[in-house]
Amino acid sequence: MRITDLLNPQSVRLGAAAADKAAAIDTLIALQEKGGHLADKAAYREAILAREGQGSTAIEAGIAVPHAKSEAVKTPGLAAMTLAEGVDYGAADKQPSDLFFMIAAPLDGNLHLEILSRLMVLLMDPGFAAKLRGAKTPEAFLAAIDEAEAAKYGEECLPRVEPAKAAAPAPAAAQAQGYRILAVTACPTGIAHTYMAAEALEKAGKELGLPVKAETNGSGGAKNVLTADEIAAADGIIVAADKNVDTARFHGKPVLFVPVSDGIHKPAELIKQIESGAVPVYRSEGGPAAAAAPVKESAGRQVYKHLMNGVSHMLPFVIGGGILIALAFLLDTFDPSNAANFGMGTPVAAFFKTIGGVAFNFMLPILAGYIAMSIADRPGLVVGFVGGSMAAAGTSFATIAGTADPVASGFLGALLAGFVGGYFMLGLEKLCDKLPRSLEGIKPILIYPVVGVLFMGLFMCIVGPVVGALNVGLMNLLAGLGGTSKVLLGAVLGGMMSIDMGGPFNKAAYVTGTGAIATALAAGAAQGAIEYQMMASVMVGGMVPPIAIALCTTFFKKKFTADERKSGIVNYIMGLCFISEGAIPFAAADPLRVIPSCVVGSAVAGALSMVFGCGLMAPHGGIFVFPVVTNVLGYIISLAAGSAVGMALLAVLKKNKEA
Question: What is the domain extent for residue 418?
């Protein structure tokens, strides 16, 4: 199989124009669709944006490789594009990107990943990139790829190659004298940056006369795996990874931990650092050096990463279930004398409420389970699921004995269960490392699940009622808010949605809103409950930034370039659909003016939403869930006012482009 088996002329566009990063992504997705690779264009776009949210896929020298694995992909494929004028894609060297390859990978199957890894390696050659930029037709573009692939891989790129022949033989010099330096590369999706970092490190090692062997931990599994003899003989190891890799085998060796992007951009610097002898020795178990080795992440960053792992897996259940429950409320008639039955009064409403409830009830177990799994890998999953389920059920010694009614510890209990369960299992794994090797097989199937579940059961029975009481106290406190306090809460939640548009502040506000909905639904709260009003403030705050920017590009055209005005129109749609990412290119280009304007506008919208008593029972949807908003007219006024304030501030702060 060749690279061009995944890339056809219909999916290549040369000399295109794109106003910004978002426009470039949309053009590439259209090319993927034209090539017949996508089953769901919108879902694939969400996957691409999610990957970009983890870090830009741009690399140096004007190249960007956006990619995603998604169930929306029918067949693995590539799309390629060159731009007449590059766009800011967030490259480390601050240079605009004008050569793009977009990778569409299905969730199953790995053969295509081997082919895609070749493309990543070839792109590290400036001469190859120059030929692609100079191609006049798609056919010439594909011919340049075929030529470069044949020159580097020879027989390997021909059809019907046996998989066993896919690995290139090690260089003779390296075989003769051994590898001085070893490396392990890994990125979150394991498609692009993994292989590019490996190629950059091996190439830099060759130029420096210090042979390097790089193991790639891609989506298809580990390739070019480091052997025990190579590790023992090496001067040191570079771990260029943005996800967890096996490091226990490097015990006692100098190990340098860096992000995968450093492997691409600073390969020579990393190699020299290993050879300088200034890299600390790594210890896989306690000891002074163990704490010094993984310095790439602070404790706060690790906690945030674990939390986001739980939240990202939880959100599909929250959004899918929450919107179905909101539809049930829309289709039913509220009876104040029987508020607990709201959403179940008619057969159609009962159907939506039941199905939505099933999905929504997975929220807390999923959250706790994947937080624990992020901390302790697979052994943490079962413990987190059990803890999250007990948090939702309000299980305690008193409820088991039948002497008290259950009081759910809710979102707070699930968070606690996830982190405590994960770190407990991490400690248990380290403790079990001291057991005889003959017991290795029973640890994952007997020791970990039995001890972990027993611990979590005891922990939640003891701590759950305390957190449940705290949860009830918080609900009562929120319900008692009024006047200035309530308005301030709405302003804070709305403003947080615009501070970093997808970052920690934005996620914290959104998780607060969804957690409030879960608490309200579990308690059978009425339509006007403060928890639903919190979610309303969160969503209206997230809708303001794109709309404010779109309004400014429409009414204050001199503040923007022609390309910015064109892309501004798209922001109307994105804002109304509660997709804040439409504002990111404008915020990235002019953060000191755009972000403050959006934050103030969102805060105004969130505060007004509270003033009007607007409530939202759905955790997402934009204008499509307006029919289930309490006081929808007040909500529209809040959105319009916040957007207008954001637009006005932006118009005042931004300078005319002509000036």
Answer: 300-478
